[in-house]
Structures are given as C-alpha cells and as structure tokens.
Design a protein that fits this description.
The complex is a heterotrimer of chains A (258), B (95) and C (330).
Chain A: H1 12-32, H2 41-69, H3 75-80, H4 91-94, H5 100-121, H6 127-155, H7 159-172, H8 184-191, H9 202-215, H10 237-246, H11 248-252
Helix pairs in contact in A: 1-2, 2-6, 5-6, 5-7, 5-9, 6-7
Chain B: E1 8-14, E2 22-28, H1 32-43, E3 51-56, H2 68-76
Antiparallel strand pairs in B: 1-2, 1-3
Chain C: H1 19-30, H2 43-62, H3 64-68, H4 77-102, H5 108-116, H6 133-154, H7 160-188, H8 192-211, H9 223-228, H10 236-254, E1 264-265, E2 271-272, H11 278-288, H12 292-329
Antiparallel strand pairs in C: 1-2
The chains are: A mainly alpha (258), B alpha+beta (95), C mainly alpha (330).
InterPro entries (chain B): PaaB, PaaB_sf
Organism (chain B): Bradyrhizobium sacchari
Protein name (chain B): Ring-1,2-phenylacetyl-CoA epoxidase subunit PaaB
C-alpha cells in the first residue's frame, strides 16, 4: 500500500545527505511553528526567513540524496514517507520550541555548528555538496548572527530572561555532542574528501559559543554527558508527533499530487 | 515598571551600487543592531538591497509643511538656474 | 488588505476646525495631491485613516492564523515553502500598515492593545476555519483575489504613507493569488476526492468572501466622507461586482460550481449573485463567528508570552546606552 514507508538504500553518501537534510527540515519545521506566534512581528519575519532557508537546504539535500540513491525516491518521498525510525537528524533540532529562549539557544548551538560546517564543506570533493555548502554557509552565518544577538539580549536583559536563557542552555546542552559524532561510513567519506570531519570543528564551535555566552553573562554547563541516537533513528518522543503533523496529508491521501 | 514602547526606526536601502539609499519604510527594534537585522529580514526578502541604513525616527528633523511657501517657493522664480533659460543657436548643436 | 468591510468614516467636523484650512485641504484632495504626515488635516480625516489603516494591519496579522494553521501540514516541501513565504508576507504587510498608521500619531503598541482588548475590528473573513488543504488554495484564490480588488484603488489613496504601503503590498502580493489558484488547479486535475475537497472549500468560502467587501451600498452610511477624501474610490457593491465577474470564469475553468444556484449573467455580461446573508456578517463582526475567540486567544497568547522577550530587549538596550555614555565620559 502506498501509505507504507519507502525503503531507502542508505549507502554512506545517501545516508550522509539524508542526515543533513533531516537536520535542516526538522529545524526549519520547528521554526515555522513560530510563524504568527512570535514575541514581535519583526521576529515573525526573521524566524520565517530562517525556516525558509533551512527548508530550502533540506530540499536540495533530499534531491541530492535521491539522485545519489538512483531509485524513484524524490524530495517529497524522503520527507513525507519515512517513519520516525528512518529519520536521521540530530536530537537537538527536534526538541520543541519551548519558550523563545529555548528556541534561540537551540538556534545558537545549531547555527554555530552549521556556520563552521558549511564553510568547510565548500571544499567538498563532491561538486553538488560543495554548491549546496556555498549557499548554505551564507545563510548559516546570518542565522548565527541572529541567534547570537538574541542570546546576548536575553542573557544580559532582565533577571527573568537571564534565567530562562540559562535554563535553556542547561536543557539543550546534552544534545550538542551528536553534531560532532562520526560513524564508519562517514569516516570513509571524510577520507575520500567528500565530507569533512565535524570533530575538527568542535574547538572553534566552543570558542564561538563561549564568546557569545560570556558576553551574555551566561554560562556553559560543565556536564559533558551527551545524548546520542538521532543519527541512527533513535529519537526523542517529540519527533513522532512532529512527523505525524508534517506527514499527515501524504499519509491520509497516499500517492496524490498536490 | 511598564516596558517602554519599542523605538521606531526609518529604513533606507541602496538597491544597486551607484544608486543612493532610498527610504523604504520603518520598523520597531530595541536597538540599532536589532533594527539593522530586522530591516534585512523585512525589507530585503526579494533581493531588494545591497546596503541598509537604519536611523532612529526621532533623529529626523523635518521641515514644516506650513512653511512650504517660505521654504520652497523662492526657488521657483530662479528660472535662470535652468539650462533651458538660455538660448543657443541651433547651428551650434547640443550644448 | 481586507478593510473594505470596516470602512466607517468619522462625520465631518469642519465646523470645529479652521474653515479656511479645511477648504484648502479639500482643494488639495480634489487636485489629487497626496497628504503627508506633517500636513494639516482635519481631525476626522486623521481619525478615519488611523482606524482604517490599523484595522487593515490587524487583519493582516490575524490573517496569518488561518493559513498558518496549515504551514506544518503542507503536503509537499514546495507548497510548504510557498505557504510559509506567503504567511510571512502577510506579517510584513501588517508591519508596513502599522508603520503607516503610526505616521498619524498613534503608536503600534496602542493600536495592538486596542485590537487585543477587542476594541478594534479586523476583517470578518479570518473568523472562518481552515479545515482542509483546499482551504489554503481557496483563500489564496478568493480571499487574496478580493483583497487585491480592494487594495489596488488604495494605491491611489489620498494619504501618502497608506498609498505607498499599498503599492508595496500589491507588488508583493501578486504571487499570493496565483499560488492559491495553482493549488486549486492541481486539486481539480487530481482525484475525485481532491476535486470534492476543492468544491467543498469553495462552498464554504464563497459567501464569506463576498461579505469581505462590506455592507451593500444602500446600507452603508459612512462612505461619503471617505469618498470625498479619496480614501475610498469605489463603492462596496462596485468592487464586489468586479470581483464576481472576474471570479466566475476562473471557477468555470476549474470545473467548480459557485454555490449560488440563482446566479445569472445579465445582458452586459455581469454575473448577478443572489442575496447575501447579512445577518451572518453582522454576527461574525460582532464576535460570533466560528473562530473569533480562537483568533483573539492566539494573538493574546503570542503577545503575552512575548512580553518578557520585549522587556529583555528594552532592558539590554538601556544598559548598552548607559555603558556607551559611561565610556564616552571616560
């Protein structure tokens, strides 16, 4: 039956692209949930712009994954017809929006990574990935700027905003380790010059973060226990609900054009 | 304590190099950095700009429309400032 | 968009104002001059415009909610991006309009507070629910179509900032109606189920969309001043007729039936529609539409939950200003 999940032949390169595509889609989806509900109209505009950038990145990466796989999957099948266990995003991006501080801390953690990541990927040996990186690095650089300015204001704003921001940092910190993890398949791609080793970015990521968090008069947790699982489809409970919404049309009306 | 109203900013955008910044609208932001970001997100979504200025609306000093006569009408009679005031024989060509 | 239903001009207060100034003002309007913020204007003109522009802004902002209801459920990634961009545009339009209203001396905070307190109106159309994906197509096609009919003449409105905001809005909005119609075309070329979904959406939205243009001319008491001031250039019924005439062939192309069995085409080619249920319109405006309470609750929640963020930004700005002053003093 057409509502069934598609099967994806997850060769290392397909899986690699899917993981980045899922990161972008799920985070874009989360940010799109703010549209119409942000703390001020100016921020509705900003969050929607970021969401649109991320959804755009996801589409390119899904299309690349589908083409690399070489079956009859496409961006929509990959987005709408994989179940929660087939999704490959990091746990960080699926965490609920929470309050504005939680959304902004999630943005800061992710974009500080994505900024470095896409800048490095511009030199990928795969020309499509390099082209996607060339566009994404500019977008991510702005996302980082946007999140940083907010974190500084929330941290150094009122007692309440400071407490909320610190609370969000504590809450989300354990989800950051996964961004730097690498498995054997990825190691081979790194060796081949197609992917970059995210582990090499962690030092600079931490430096960027420390500067911003410091300016915001906030603190990074000492705890270094990190949650893992998203990359292999072991998610938090939140993702299933997100997908049931995201995929509801394709699941209810299988196989139709919209 | 009541939160003060978020300040209003006027936004000016240079759409292409070689053109002057032009007023495009306004927005609310707590400070200049946020105003600049918001201007980018609101007024350049369709690739309208290469450069943005934001100016606090309160920093603008405007002429009084009631003084329009005194301010601007005296210029209207100085027609000798315009090239068409002067006659150059056709034979001379474009000048 | 969507102000037509709400136009109610203040009665002329010329007797209270400087008669000569008022006459001069009207002469400028008659000469098609634009009025700018610092120009002298009758208090009633200012009040009428403040109300109309702010209601227009509220409509844009509340209007994000029914369509926003489908951003997370859009059926393809392409549709998702387009819908998000469209709803975001509406936010931008609300923002331009608040700014235009502010040039008349009100602050955005005051205007928003009036809306949240239920003292300011917004277009009745957004108090109807979006139940299926076809509603998103229908809103783009009909609601934006109706809005464009209304907004194009507003680009020539006598008040400069309003006219300029409208020019920008109309330019950006040109994709909205096409986006909606494309959804409808896709549905109508799709399965029986999809076509039925499209017809159902048209059935539910048709009459509320006709109501967007406001009460019939015979019953509309306040248009005179707005017309005289060139805020309004066409009557409610004129715009409504124009809209119906433009829409009928579009529905025919889709193979959809307009839910008005009594509709006929007259000798001049105009489509004559049946009587509109104005009782429903009045009830929806009075707060009794299917979604009025939900819409207001959503806006109040966003505003309330955003308060600490706005306070933080203000507090930081104050600190930064103090630090800069201290630095300059050193």
């Amino acid at each position: 039956m057409a509502t069934a999940n598609i099967q994806v032949s997850e060769t290392p390169l397909v899986l690699y692209a899917l993981r980045r595509a899922d990161d972008a889609l799920i985070l874009g989806h989360r940010l799109s949930e703010w549209c119409g509900h942000a703390p001020m109209l100016e921020e509705d505009m900003a969050l929607s712009n970021i969401a649109l950038d991320l959804i755009g990145q996801a589409r390119e990466l899904y299309t690349f994954a589908a083409r690399t796989e070489g079956k009859d999957n496409d961006e929509d099948k990959l987005a709408y017809l994989r179940d929660v266990r087939q999704y490959r995003n990091v746990l960080l991006v699926e965490q609920p929006n929470g309050d504005f501080a939680q959304t902004m801390v999630r943005q800061l953690f992710y974009s500080a990574f994505a900024d470095l990541y896409w800048r490095a990927m511009v030199n990928s040996g795969d020309t499509t990935l390099a082209a996607i990186a060339a566009r994404s690095e500019k977008e991510s650089a702005y996302h980082l700027r946007h999140a940083s300015e907010w974190i500084i204001r929330l941290g150094d704003g009122t007692d309440e905003s400071h407490a909320r921001a610190q609370n969000a940092i504590e809450h989300l910190w354990a989800f950051t380790g996964e961004m730097f993890a690498v498995d054997d398949g990825e190691r081979a791609l790194i060796h081949a010059g197609i992917a970059i080793d995210p582990g090499t970015l962690r030092g600079r990521w931490l430096t960027t973060l420390s500067e911003i968090i410091g300016e915001a008069t906030l603190q990074l947790p000492q705890n270094d226990w990190m949650q893992q699982g998203g990359r292999s489809g072991r998610h938090s409970e939140h993702l299933g609900h997100l997908l049931s919404e995201l995929q509801s049309m394709q699941r209810t009306f299988p196989g139709l054009a919209w | 304590m009541a939160t003060p109203n978020t300040p209003l900013w006027e936004v000016f955008i240079r759409s292409r190099n070689g053109l002057a910044h032009k007023h495009v609208g306004s927005l609310h932001a707590s400070d200049a950095t946020m105003a600049l970001q918001a201007a980018r997100d609101i007024y350049t979504r369709r690739g309208e700009g290469l450069s943005i200025w934001v100016v606090p609306s309160t920093a603008i000093t405007a002429s009084d429309p009631a003084e329009k006569g005194m301010m601007f009408e005296p210029a209207e009679s100085k027609i000798y400032r315009h090239p068409t005031f002067y006659e150059v024989p056709d034979e001379v060509g474009h000048m | 968009m969507y102000t037509q239903a709400l136009n109610t001009a203040e009665t002329d207060d010329r007797g209270l104002e400087d008669v000569a100034k008022a006459a001069q003002f009207q002469a400028r309007i008659d000469a098609e001059e634009r009025i700018e913020p610092n120009d002298w204007m009758p208090a009633a003109y200012r009040k009428t415009l403040t109300r109309q522009i702010s209601q227009h802004a509220h409509s844009e902002i509340v209007g994000m909610l029914p369509e926003g209801n489908w951003i997370t459920r859009a059926p393809t990634l392409r549709r998702k991006a387009a819908l998000l961009a469209k709803v975001q545009d509406e936010c931008g339009h609300g923002l331009y309009l608040y700014a235009a209203a502010e040039t008349l001396g009100a602050s955005r905070e005051e205007l928003v507070d009036a809306m949240l307190a239920g003292k300011a109106k917004y277009s009745s159309i957004f108090n109807y629910p979006t139940l299926t994906w076809a509603d998103i197509g229908t809103i783009g096609w009909l609601v934006d179509g109706a809005a464009i009919m209304n907004q194009i003449p507003l680009c020539r409105c006598s008040y400069g900032p309003y006219a300029r905001a409208m020019i920008r809005v109309c330019k950006e909005e040109s994709f909205h109606q096409r986006q909606g119609y494309e959804i409808m075309v896709t549905l109508c070329r799709g399965s029986d189920e999809q076509k039925a979904m499209a017809q159902d959406a048209l059935n539910r939205w048709w009459w509320p969309v006709l109501m967007m243009f406001g009460p019939p001319d015979a019953a509309s008491q306040h248009s005179d001043a707005s017309t005289k001031w060139k805020i309004k250039r066409f009557s409610n019924d004129e715009l409504r007729q124009k809209f119906v005439d433009a829409t009928v062939p579009q529905a025919q192309y889709l193979g959809l039936t307009i839910p008005d069995p009594g509709m006929t085409q007259d000798a001049d080619g105009h489509w004559r529609y049946s009587e509109i249920d104005w009782t429903e319109f009045k009830q929806v405006l009075a707060g009794n539409g299917p979604c009025n309470r939900d819409r207001m609750a959503a806006r109040r929640k966003a505003h309330g939950e955003g308060a600490w963020v706005r306070e933080a930004a203000a507090a930081y700005a104050a600190k930064r200003a103090r630090r800069q002053t201290a630095q300059a003093a050193e």
